[in-house]
Amino acid sequence: MGKLTVVGIGPGDYENMTVRADRALKECQVIVGYHVYVDLVRERYPDKEFLTTPMTREADRCRMALDEARSGRDVAMICSGDSGIYGMAGLLYQLRGESREPEIAVIPGLTAACSGAALLGAPLTHDFAVISLSDRLTSWEKIEKRLTAAAEADLSIVLYNPASRGRPDYLQRACDILLRTLPEERPCGVARSIGREGESRTILPLGRLRDFEADMFCTVFVGNSQTEVIGGELVTPRGYRNV
Amino acid sequence: MGKLTVVGIGPGDYENMTVRADRALKECQVIVGYHVYVDLVRERYPDKEFLTTPMTREADRCRMALDEARSGRDVAMICSGDSGIYGMAGLLYQLRGESREPEIAVIPGLTAACSGAALLGAPLTHDFAVISLSDRLTSWEKIEKRLTAAAEADLSIVLYNPASRGRPDYLQRACDILLRTLPEERPCGVARSIGREGESRTILPLGRLRDFEADMFCTVFVGNSQTEVIGGELVTPRGYRNV
């Protein structure tokens, strides 16, 4: 029985991987993942075998990884960002069920809330909510309820999967929901292609975020009531006195 | 004018640092931080100068780092976990104000939401809120409102700073608030001393979390309505069909 390691590779560049994630990829025999993420690491680990599946075939990909481990090979399943946050670790545990074999190790990685915030300044210095706008696996009603609750509780908000080709207007819909509670001038930011070629950032008020053309490479940040743009950076104070 | 780099070192062990964070600490001249975090990295970077301040003197620590950079030295300000999430990046930008000098670079690190979740299984596979129970810089009323909003919106919840010597009963107070909305049997977990000596984890229902003796080394996870304990791990499904 081989070992299955779920590896969060962070935003995609080697620099933002942890020492532990790098070691896990060096030590395994087979790397399994969505083909876009596999392409991000392929050159650095040229002696590995790579197995890929298309984007929406998550369960197939996990079964493939579990089968490889059961056949005696050490497998690394890679996830972009973190291995757990919207990652594959949960599905692997579900598919393994009450069996304790194969052994599963979860190696965390930088999720876009961390890496995107660093690119924009410091928008998450205080409490925040992370909400995905993808309704592929969640109802839109639930997403809407979460957006409203987060805005009413004055949490900073990070939006994952703000748009895709099939959902070009979801960020606009989310902004319209937030604008029922939050002012148009609320400072926001978009981090795009974090740690990859063409990395960019945009800082803009919520009223303009509504018309921003986001895509699947974007992570969106909505400030709380204290968030400001200071020296060109998006900054949420923690509340330190005597500053 | 030197450069100021704010470095998230992750939970504390070298393995969970990013390649980029390690390089920044190798390349700087002075490392500034809270003495406990400085002690975590001191041995690995023995040729550096170290400057520390006590725990509650965050603004003094940031001014010290800015002054060192202004005097021409390359400074790394270290934060445990992420550099932004409850970290020092925001305060440094506030103190620097509209000046663009010294140059500040923010290097993200693994926050306890990522590293603690990986230790417990996969509790954050879906939307979640991160809420600190420290009322040193936030009113308890605001914390209470955020807890209630997160529970009502069926977000998984990560509690930072669940207790300290001066606030031994805050986790109990938070659980009592959550129990107005959530059932006693809701699966929860506590990650303690993540990536450090004595690392441990506890998985238990919300009704028992209430009486758990947490301390400042703990990060607490409260599941959403779908969270289960599977094969001994705390798992929140993302909602994949046909599993």
What does this protein structure show overall?
2 copies of one chain form a homodimer. The first copy, chain A, has helices spanning 19-27, 35-41, 58-70, 89-96, 112-120, 140-152, 170-178, 206-209; strands at residues 4-8, 30-34, 49-53, 75-79, 104-107, 121-122, 128-132, 156-160, 187-192, 200-205, 218-222, 228-230, 233-235. The first copy, chain A, contains 8 helices and 13 strands. Chain A is an alpha/beta fold. The mean pLDDT of chain A is 95. The first copy, chain A, has a 5-stranded parallel sheet, with helices on both faces. A 5-stranded mixed sheet of chain A has the order 7-8-11-9-10, with helices on both faces. A 3-stranded mixed sheet of chain A has the order 6-13-12. Chain A is elongated. At the A-B interface, helix 1, helix 4, helix 5, strand 6 and strand 7 of A face helix 1, helix 4, helix 5, strand 6 and strand 7 of B. Strand 7 (128-132) of chain A pairs antiparallel with strand 7 (128-132) of chain B.
What is this entry, summarized?
Two copies of one chain form a homodimer. With 243 residues, the first copy, chain A, is α/β, with parallel strands linked by helices. Chain A has eight helices and 13 strands.
Distance between the termini of chain A: 57 Å
Which radius of gyration of chain A do the C-alpha atoms yield?
19 Å
Uncertain residue ranges of chain A: none
Q: Reading side by side through the largest sheet of chain A, how are the strands ordered?
A: 3-2-4-1-5
User: How many DSSP E strands of chain A?
Assistant: 13
Oligomer: homodimer
- Summarize the biggest pleated sheet of chain A: 5 strands, parallel
- The helix tally of chain A amounts to 8
Strand content of chain A: 15-25%
Shape summary of chain A: elongated
Helix content of chain A: 25-40%
Write the element-wise H/E pattern of chain A from the N-terminal end onward.
EHEHEHEHEHEEHEHEEHEEE
The overall pLDDT average of chain A reads 95
